[in-house]
Amino acid sequence: MLRLAFALSLLFLNLFACEGGYDSCKLKITHSNAIKNSTLNISVPNSKRLIYSNHQPNAKVLKHDIFLNLYLIKSKDNFKHPFTINNHLALGVASVDAKSAIEGKILKRQSGLNNFARFSEKTKTPALLLNSCCNLEGIVTDRGIIEKVYLERFLSSSSSDYGDVGIRVDDTNKKVTIQRVDPFYKNNPFKVGDIVVSLDGKKVYNSATLMRQILFSKISTFKSIKIKRGTKYYTFKVRVNKRYGGGYLSDTFLEQKGIYFSPNLCITQIRDDFDGYGLKVGDRLIQVNGKKVSTTTDIATHLNDFNYAASLLFLRDGFEFFVNIKGEIEKKSIWEVVNCNAN
């Protein structure tokens, strides 16, 4: 009888979720065990689970997005009524966990990998962003909301790679302005302060749409980007390269060279390409091109002064040393990972 009652309750949740509103969504989260401590374990179609976690799940991973901490695994419980992504405009949304539903709206859309969407209300994390029919609109993390278009791409795409054309942008005075330029992007034609006017002949209205179109582009294809520089307009045809940094990874532009940093600028991962430079996991970066750095954003900003080589000053056990990085490095990657604490 208990099994029958449970099955009927799930059927009710699936068929009448819209009528039941967010109370039904809370029950569905509870019955599906969608939230476990600080991780999300969301039942999705085809007997799979979408995992959001800072640690690799103890299961066979079918796919992994290293930028957004997303995993796809095969589900063993075969939850009968999985969460589906809403492909239509939602009339209302709420941040929902097993005990509460906080209704609100997205104030700012997700702009690429580094700037997650912002919600109008204070929320508990982690949680699911749902409409009243319990369809996924996104996931709520301590850094903001990862929107459904990124979840949909992760679930449907054969690859978890993202595209990159060597720029980072933001919305300034209702215009999409280039904030940082990748000095390692070959023949990068862009400059800090350029205003992006159009992409492939279509007008650009906001950074969220532009970054999504770039990130979701196929690697090695080409994009036509029109910019305004001062009073003049330029159109550049640029190649889409593979993205190496952003999201839960550092995004200093040195990632494509194999170096990743912690928030306090210690090296956490390094490729064997840099054996010849004498760098080690745990080395702390303190200057870039003669300028002091204290955040990963500082690194990317001062790397824009890159000309022939980037001059990096590191600290190791009280000893300071310079490393000059130049040219293209293409070798097999071997990674080391450590925890780096400020001292």
TrEMBL record:
Protein origin, superkingdom: Bacteria
Residue intervals of the DUF7488 domain: 18-157
Signal peptide residues on this chain, from the entry's feature table: 1-17
Keywords, ordered alphabetically: Signal
Domain named PDZ: residues: 163-240
Family annotation (Pfam families): DUF7488, PDZ_2
Keyword Signal: yes
Name assigned to this protein: Uncharacterized protein
